[in-house]
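Running log. JK asked me to keep both predictions on one page so they can be read side by side. First protein, sequence followed by its tokens:
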Amino acid sequence: MSAFIRKNLTFFTFHHASHKKLNLRITPVSLFLPQFFSTLNPNPNNAVYDILVHKHHFPCEFSSRVASQLGDLKNPERVNSMLSFLKSIGFSNPQLQKFINWRPILLSYSLERNVEPKIKAFQELGFSPSDISNMISACPIILASSLNNFIIPSLSVLKSLMGSNAALLRAVRRSPRLLTSNLKKTLEPNLEFLKGCGVSVDRVHVVFNGGHGNAFISKPEVFIAAVEKTKEMGIAVSSKTFIYGVLTIASMGSKGLERKMEAFREMGFSDSDILCMFQREPLVLAVSTDKMRKVTELLVGTGKYDASSIVGHPLALHYSIGKRYEPRLRVLGVLVGKGLIEDWPSLRTLCKSTDDQFFKRFVGPYLDHLSDVSIPKVEVKA
């Protein structure tokens, strides 16, 4: 199948004492030399800086900042041992930079006491090297959390909920923060309340597998308020979307919810529009305000879609402008301009069609007419 083409639709200071006399104040060059050379060689004599730059090949600026934050460690070789160990189990330099940025002090932790036991626990449960590195780089606080007080009890609770190691692995991969909370005080009472409302365990599993597990660890009073608010906003407990409404509101809080609704109002949506969108697609409220504004402006700006189109298909607010909307709108604009099609597709078709589907309907039949539309190539399955 042919490739689907797409568009990237980025001193000296002096003082006049008089008209006849000019006083120059000159700072001796020697005073600048220490500062000058320190910028060329940041953290000279700093063992941590040397380890980061010369042994592990991190950028100089990053290494200088980390070394200064760690100060004078009594045993800088710990940094080397920690990094060497983490690399040996699959961490890449970008992943290491991510978690070091979050808390540089982790590099000074005892490898034997603080880190190796946690890694061993994950390995015994069946986590692969990539699972472990992705999980910790996404949630570095795992390395700072107590193995006995948080991680092992959390794994036990999740294993009981999910029923198998495979399901447990999926849940933790998607929501690593689950390992850093006291699940007996958050997750367990929240799930019990949901069950009491009539939400099935199977529905909970679907949500966990979809990567929304973190929202279950809200404080119980926040979670209960979110359940009541979701009912108030018109989603029935029996609906498949109910649990997503609860999780969305629980993660936002009441103030965040009101701010998001006000942003929708400012864009011209009525309260009934907002409720309608929430009932159809609760996660629409989780879209950032900036993104929903830009998507709305782009779609309405075409003159082919309006606010009611978005209300009818709120999922449209989730898709990427650069990767999905701009290339497709450019192609459609050319086709309409050349009289090759009369009507634009519905908003649902525009945003939900796969690349393959869009190519077969709007690109393949008109390739000769789109030769002047420069868009990057994306492979389309035959």
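And the second, directly underneath as requested:
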Amino acid sequence: MQTKDRLRREYNSYNDLSREFRMYDEQSMDSLLDDRLRIHMNPNGSDELSLQRDDFYASAYPQSPQLLLRQHNFKLKVYYSNVGNCVQCNKRIRFAVASLRCRDCPLRCHTDCCSQLTVNCIPQPLVSTKRGHLSDFVPRAAPLVPALIVHCVTEIEGRGLEQEGLYRVSSTREKVKRLRHKLLRGKATPHLGDKDTHTLCCCVKEFLRSLERPLIPMYHRRDFVLATQQTDPLAAEEPLYLAMVDLPQSHRDTLAFLMLHWQRIAQSPAVKMSINNIAVIFAPTLFDDVDLNLSNIVLWQQVLRVLLLQSPGFWAQFLEVEPLLPACSLDDEEWKRENYHSPSWQSVKTYFRSMKSVSLQ
């Protein structure tokens, strides 16, 4: 059954939304928000745009990646083969010792490390062969954000918001390639606690660049450009909402997730990455570099600046968490044995054999 939040996405007009769901109504911003809730264009006295962090949005809308996604569905299991290391402590899971395995994602950890986990549960994608489209890497239930982006963003925000130069300082190509291969392979959730934050940032950028279609596809580019022509970020909210609804769900959820992440990056004074810096770095990546020229780069940077100035609540509305179907309590092999050799299946085979013998007589 579709949830209430999902039904809100399907409205044909932005005006159909309830007043509680809409961030702003016909009233002006000054009448709705006091001085401590306003978006300041120049809070630090610099020429660059930035977004002020406020307690109102932090309490009203989910700000942390952990709050946007689902919890793990653990099963106690004893392994009699080598299954690798614990995703939390990075120590080997010992032979014939009980450990925890998530039924929905490839995470394995020690029973003692369960309470300390900082890794989100990202269900496995349904497709078996990946062609390079974003939909090939997203989980089977919303929010449709690839596990690579979620795990890297969670680790970056966990210990990197006080580090200068996120997404600006580069890492070695070999480290990025090796980490990207581990995260995309999907057989096990790798331990990221010992990875450099700059390597994690480069892994996110490299993944977005390698997509077959950019995060904002070419045939949706005009909608975003027209929606962000307004000088006031609040005036762009209605056309921007309609442009977001028209996006494929995997692109919409991933874009909203990254916008919240980049807003938190811009809000951290220690990182020294303003909205202008983020727009310069990611504009060619989000819009593709097929027709890369100076006029397009300036236009895309302006669009991305307006997107980053939208309220966190605007982006959080697209990150609804769909419940998964109840996971089977049996392992895959046990499930196959239970289904293929159950008494009901044997009775069906016996029935058809009896009917065949009757027809031959």
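Observation for JK regarding the second prediction: Residues 249-267 form the longest helix (19 residues).
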